[in-house]
Specification:
16 helices; globular; 5-stranded antiparallel β-sheet; alpha+beta; 570 residues
């Protein structure tokens, strides 16, 4: 092998020497010789020929003594290989399920709404590739809120959202009940959306060089680019070892320029997310639009490894910008080193939302179909507080939202940050409750506990009282909405939407170990998933039913189906 390389190098070196000699010979040849020779020929003779022979021999000996590495001719640059993750280093925040609460001891439950969906699409990616999701990757509220349930919305933007409730027996235990709270934001027509000032903050580090990372990311942003208008502005900031500006604020109708800038991006280097975030906010401030949508879209696998890498410091950096009117959305990509924990925390700190994109179809769902709710915020710092009547409800458990819980006194504290609602967005929350005297309680009776006091006659028919606080964008003082949950909301059987939401919640619980499923097993979950498909224009519910079957086979240890991995693009 080395001899072959050496021979090639020697031939190249002799050829180079001959070219040099050829020049010297042309300069020194007498006029007659030059005239007699053919136009394309060089004649070397006499003492010069012998000198060249000696020189070639010396050159041959010198090259024979040189290491092959020094002789080998440089190969033309090849495209960098796709990044290969040496080990799975994905990171998820540890969480414990919300416990069952005794109403007589803690009648009030308070939490911030959540509009993220990244947990569901990320777990879907794992199941499609035949991998068992770690329990901490499963966030029940993000599973539930991935789907629409047809909650009714408000009639005008004067009240930016409407809250509805439904109470019915839990499908896994008819002795217990589910309370579903649905919130629907006012749906602003796309033609009426205000101008958008968007900064694409794109991770171009070496770890992004994989088909489901930077290539998919570029196509995802190309889908969003297709929706932009002349009044919109787009900037592109990238970061690897350092941050850089690829595209200054550019009108949205100059799509060729935006797409060309995206297409030029290549992955390489380490990941300095802190510098990238700072530059992105600087560009957002430069093109800031009063009364418009101002948002940074951070697309990354979250593997920050140089510069500011501490999650708390990055979170504080983003939180400092919250009051500037510039929100932050995080879009997760890839597998093997995906930092779900950090992506979710940054979105929370930046008054934005978090999604995970595993296919081009998901990119279209998040950045095209749901663009209005993703970008345009119509209500900020939305908090839910529900007070259960201990005369009618003995126990309750909030399903999911573990990292969104608030202290009781934080509900009315307008300095406490909470989740936002976008135009047309739905938010769904489920409580599992045990009615008094139903025999469905899970907590043992207290030896010294006092019996619950009967509710006053004015509230005897109320199971609970729902309160919501929110701020209009730009306001600092919150507004209050109140509505009771009465016997009029009680149904003998759950409606189709509640039944499907309960099935999704059960699926999430089963993936986390199945501690709250009562008599249900995987077969029950799969059966209900198929029976509650309802109106499914995008086949998302049908896809969910297939995922339940895949997970059931995986947990049972049977041979799972082995479809081809989902394509990055159709």
């Amino acid at each position: 092998m080395h001899r072959h390389v050496l021979a090639l190098a020697l031939v190249a070196a002799i050829a180079a020497t001959a070219c040099s000699t050829r020049s010297d010979s042309v300069a020194e040849a007498p006029p007659a010789a030059a005239h007699d020779a053919q136009p394309d020929s060089i004649v070397v003779s006499g003492t010069r020929a012998r000198a060249e022979q000696a020189r070639s021999a010396a050159l041959h000996q010198r090259h024979a003594a040189m290491p092959a590495a020094l002789v080998a001719m440089p190969a033309p640059p090849a495209p960098p290989p796709y990044y290969a993750q040496p080990a799975n280093t994905e990171r998820y925040a540890e969480r414990q399920d919300n416990p069952v609460r005794r109403t007589s001891e803690q009648p009030v439950s308070t939490f911030s709404i959540d509009v993220d969906t990244g947990s569901y699409s990320n777990v879907r990616r794992m199941l499609r590739f035949g991998n068992r999701p770690p329990p901490d990757a499963v966030r029940a509220e993000e599973f539930i809120n991935y789907f629409d349930y047809g909650h009714p919305g408000p009639d005008s933007l004067d009240t930016p959202f409407r809250a509805t409730t439904e109470l019915a027996p839990a499908p896994w235990d008819a002795r217990r009940h589910l309370l579903m709270i649905g919130i629907k934001g006012y749906d602003v027509p796309r033609a009426e959306l205000p101008p958008a000032n968007l900064v694409f903050l794109i991770d171009t580090s070496g770890s992004m060089n994989a088909p489901d990372k930077l290539p998919l990311l570029k196509r995802a942003f190309a889908e969003l680019t297709g929706q932009l208008r002349a009044q919109d502005r787009v900037s592109i900031v990238v970061y690897a070892g350092s941050a850089g500006l690829v595209l200054p604020p550019t009108p949205g109708d100059r799509k060729d320029e935006i797409l060309a800038a995206l297409e030029r991006l290549e992955a390489g280097g380490s990941t300095n997310g802190g510098d990238g975030i700072q530059l992105a906010y600087a560009m957002a401030r430069r093109a800031y639009m009063d009364g418009g949508v101002n948002r940074v879209l951070l697309a990354t696998d979250g593997d920050f490894n140089v510069g500011t890498i501490d999650g708390g410091s990055l979170e504080a950096l983003v939180a400092d910008q919250r009051s500037s009117g510039i929100a932050l959305t995080t879009l997760g990509f890839g597998q093997g080193n995906y930092n779900d924990h950090l992506a979710e925390r940054l979105a929370d700190a930046g008054d934005g939302n978090h999604a995970y994109i595993d296919t081009l179809q998901e990119a279209r769902k998040v950045l095209v179909e749901e663009m209005s709710s993703t970008l345009l915020t119509i209500a900020q710092d939305v908090k839910i507080q529900i007070e259960f009547n201990p005369a009618l409800v003995s126990e309750y458990r909030l399903i999911g939202y573990e990292n969104r819980l608030l202290a009781r006194e934080e509900f009315a504290n307008d300095r406490v940050d909470a989740g936002d609602i976008g135009a047309g967005h739905e938010v769904t929350a489920l409580y599992e409750i045990a009615l008094a005297s139903s025999g469905a309680g899970q907590l043992p009776a207290l030896r010294y506990g006092q019996p619950a006091q009967a509710a006053a006659s004015a509230t005897a028919g109320e199971f609970a009282h729902l309160r919501l606080r929110y701020k209009r964008p730009g306001e600092t003082q919150s507004r209050l909405i109140e509505t009771p949950v009465t016997r009029a909301h009680l149904r003998a059987q759950p409606g189709e939407s509640m039944r499907f939401a309960a099935t999704v919640a059960a699926f999430a619980d089963a993936l986390r170990g199945g501690r709250h499923l009562g008599q249900w097993d995987w077969a029950e979950i799969a059966g209900n998933a198929k029976q509650a498909l309802g109106d499914d224009p995008w086949q998302l519910r049908a896809e969910f039913a297939g995922l339940v079957e895949d997970a059931a086979r995986m947990v049972a240890g049977s041979e799972p189906a082995q479809p081809d991995p989902p394509p990055v693009a159709p």
